[in-house]
Write a structure and sequence with these properties.
Length: about 400
């Protein structure tokens, strides 16, 4: 079935306004149901969890339900494998701190220059303690992370490979299952940044074979909130970064210092429910099956609108697409970056502002990639980051705004 765009757009109040939102990789629009759930939590169950009185029991159950919803969303084995936090940046830092006891001088970590700085900076701090950091870099001509490059970097001292599932600049979907198999064969664990992937495709941590997976719910139609998955045995092995009286067995709470945002946790369930609803409309059943079906129709809608934009950009001699030129579902998400010969990216974006279309220029916290590609002096890239609620008509409106500048 095709995506029911009328239903989809009715779920996002902001879409009824005059602006077109194509800066979704920075944060998607929020579902009405998410906002209603946040309000409901604050007005009816805003007490601390863990007590024996009835309102606290209700609050505890709601937070537990959020873990269960995101376990289903990621195809995790159990809700206890879900760690929640304020942002992906915070969760990467928590994870890095919790690995301090396991990373010794001489151990090695492999990072990529295609990652958001959130999955780079926390790991670089271990270099101060003698941990060796190696970079797996994107080929500047093909824009690819070549697997042979990873194999060349792995040694018997490699402990971690940290990689993005989809680049927030290139839009490229990286083969995480294959990367995980290569890393595991060398005795290393894999940490995946799924922030730029999660709004576009179903996450299946069992199939991916990675060890840690993190993404932000505010990129996936929810509140400012984030989720980390890791198998129970991996969480148990991490250091406690919370209060001293918590033990290694205090999972997942020992990786959630200061407690989580309860109302955001309850609200974020609305995004999971929404994707399941899309799956049911596509003829699927309930739960995980519906989530996969929902993302299947999401992916197809995004392929259609991405193809329209890519076709236009490819027709302009002045434009260089930074990333894969394919719009195939398996190749990329609906995040498209480009530069324009002889023009600063800022000027291109400002021309589009006047048409009430929200796009953006810059390095998008993938600073190292933009710098390595020599694009910093040009104002970085122009980035159009779409999701399934964007339409062909909106893409055509963007093309009309871009055309005089290209």
């Amino acid at each position: 079935m095709a995506l029911d765009l009328e239903f989809v757009r009715s779920q996002f109040p902001a879409l009824a306004g005059e602006w077109v939102f194509m800066d979704n990789a920075g944060g998607s629009q929020v579902l009405r149901t998410v906002a209603e759930r946040v309000s409901d939590y604050l007005l009816t169950s805003n007490v601390q969890t863990g007590a024996s009185y009835a309102p606290s029991l209700a609050s505890t159950a709601r937070v537990r339900e959020a873990r269960g919803a995101y376990a289903r969303f990621m195809n995790a084995a159990d809700a206890s494998e879900i760690v929640m936090g304020a942002s992906s940046t915070a969760l990467f830092r928590y994870l890095s701190e919790a690995m301090t006891g396991r990373l010794q001088p001489g151990d090695e970590i492999i990072l990529t220059n295609a990652d958001h700085e959130a999955n780079i900076g926390p790991w670089l701090k271990h270099a101060e303690r003698g941990v060796v950091v190696r970079f797996w870099n994107v080929d500047p001509d093909s824009f690819e992370l070549e697997l042979d490059g990873l194999k060349d970097l792995l040694t018997d001292r490699t402990k971690l490979v940290c990689v993005t599932h989809a680049s927030n600049i290139l839009g490229t979907i990286n083969p995480i299952a294959e990367i995980s198999a290569i890393a595991h064969a060398a005795g290393a664990e894999v940490v995946v940044d799924g922030v730029a992937y999660a709004p576009h495709r179903a996450i299946d941590v069992k199939a991916l074979g990675c060890d840690y997976y993190i993404f932000s719910s505010y990129k996936v139609f929810g509140p400012h909130f984030a989720v980390m998955w890791a198998p129970n045995d991996k969480l148990l092995a991490l250091d406690n970064i919370y209060h001293f009286f918590m033990t290694r067995e205090s999972v997942p709470y020992k990786i959630e210092p200061g407690n989580i945002n309860y109302e955001a946790a309850w609200g974020a369930i609305g995004a999971v429910d929404y994707v399941e609803a899309l799956g049911r409309k596509a003829g699927a059943g309930e739960g995980r099956v519906a989530i996969e079906a929902g993302f299947a129709v999401i992916a197809e809608q995004e392929r259609i609108i991405t193809a329209r934009l890519m076709e236009f950009l490819a027709s302009r001699n002045s434009v260089r697409i930074v990333g894969r030129k394919s719009s195939a579902v398996a190749d990329r998400v609906a995040t498209v970056s480009f530069t324009v010969e002889g023009q600063d990216s800022k000027a291109v974006v400002e021309a589009v502002d006047a048409a009430k279309i929200g796009i953006r220029h810059g390095h998008f916290y993938a600073y190292r990639l933009i710098d390595d590609l020599g694009l910093m002096a040009n104002g970085g890239v122009v980035r159009v980051s779409m999701v399934h609620y964007n339409t062909l008509a909106e893409v055509d409106r963007l093309v009309a705004a871009l055309e005089p500048k290209l």
